[in-house]
Amino acid sequence: MRTSSPGSSHSQAHLQRLELISSEWQIAADLSFCDLVLWYAEDDTFLAHDQARPVTAQTTLPQDLTGTRPPENLQPLLAHVVANQQPVGAGEDYPVGPPGVSAWPVVWKNDTIAVITVHQNLVSQRHASRLEEVYRQSAYDLFVMIANGIWPAENSKASSTSHGNPRVGDGLVRIDAHGLVSYASPNATSAFRKLGVREAVDGRQLSRMVTNQLDQGIPIDESMPTVLFGRYSARVDIETRKVVLSARSIPLIDGSGEHFAALVLLRDITEIRRRDEQLISKDATIREIHHRVKNNLQTVGSLLRMQSRRMTSDGARQALLQAMSRVDAIALVHETLSQTMDATVDMDDLLNRQFRMAVDIAAEGRAVTTTIDGSFGALPGHLATPLALVVNELATNAVEHGTSATGGNVDLSVKRLQRPGHSHPYVQVEVVDEGVVDAPDAITTIGSGLGTQIIRTLVESDLRGTIRWHRQRFDQHGAVGTRAVVLIPLDH
């Protein structure tokens, strides 16, 4: 067996293995009633990669050791375990070590890549109950599997981080190699009672006992018998009309690869499932509300469009068209929100469509082209409506004041940037028109129009950003265009 450290050529694979252990070893901490520290070799010493405290007992190490070097009386023990590639029990075989501390090598593909120290609370030592005996034996079995490079299994990380995953304190069942229950914790027994099992469970086959309680007509996960038999490391949900239990199995395997027992963690997730179903129902309701609001706003937009066609006054018709454009912008946001309930929304399709639509409406048949550069990416959903309205107003203003009677071009540019002295990123949105020849310098009049006032209010109040206008000459003929620059912080 070789020894290795994260500084070797296999460091990335070894660090991934350590991360996998960190994602699973809370089970070992709870079963052992001990604090665990994961140490890896760094130059001539060790560094603490992670630390776990037991939920089932008082912590022994109130100070978090993650990222620190070991105390002087622990360093020789760690070096001894790495050099001999064998575990050292608390107070056994290596009396120089700190009292109440055992150490286990972490082996992966024949490499000793780290050491786990197990810190017992010597103050609270007392006569062990049956539960404590089973828990400590199970923890010992897991540490042996870590030393043999067997546990955690490579495919176990997904199950350990999933929603509603059972924990040791929720209920533990230990079964033998034949799937027979050798011990069930009080919480596990309570879970069986909710499932409908009234008699004693010791000595009964767990898989058959559970499947006999399932309701007729309810589909059964095909992996359930295998998981409940302890042959496969996975999680399944045991569902009846009254209760839902989450079961997760951890096969116990010896150094020769023989399966000799298994741990099955049980958790009553009935309330979690009920809340999930409520959230799904609420999400569907919210999406339907967005869809209906979008339909109603489109109806309002159509009415405004019909009314504008009957107007004889150009000013009145233009005002109705602008109102229609604003309504359509909000309708487009609700259409996008009706298709997702994520906290963030991909703004590119939404705002690019809005920009082109606003330009087309304001152009009133003139040949006005658009150019879009950059990407908004995913932004918080609450920014969608004000940002869409800002893009709409900027595009409308650019067409009205920055294009000629024959047409022109309007540019939309988007950047994500980190401003000096600011910890949070910004989105910079620019709308640029090419201007018209001999146009009056409108810098002094910016802010007097309704559209500009809407922009200022939305940017400063809703988006908590800033808006600046700049006049610039575009060609030798004297065309003076306007560049509107909006900066939006992404910290809210």
TrEMBL record:
Keyword Kinase: yes
Keywords: ATP-binding, Kinase, Nucleotide-binding, Phosphoprotein, Transferase
Known catalytic reactions: ATP + protein L-histidine = ADP + protein N-phospho-L-histidine
Domain Histidine kinase: 288-492
Source organism, top-level taxon: Bacteria
EC number: 2.7.13.3
Residues passing through the membrane, by range: none
The protein, known as: histidine kinase
